[in-house]
Amino acid sequence: MNPSQALAGYVGAGAFFAVVALLYPKGIGGGDGVMAAGLGAWLGWSHVWIVILMAFGLGALASLPMLLAGRWNRKSLIAFGPYLAVSAFFLWLFPGAFDSLANWFFPTL
Question: 64 is in which domain, residue-wise?
Answer without folding.
Answer: 3-105
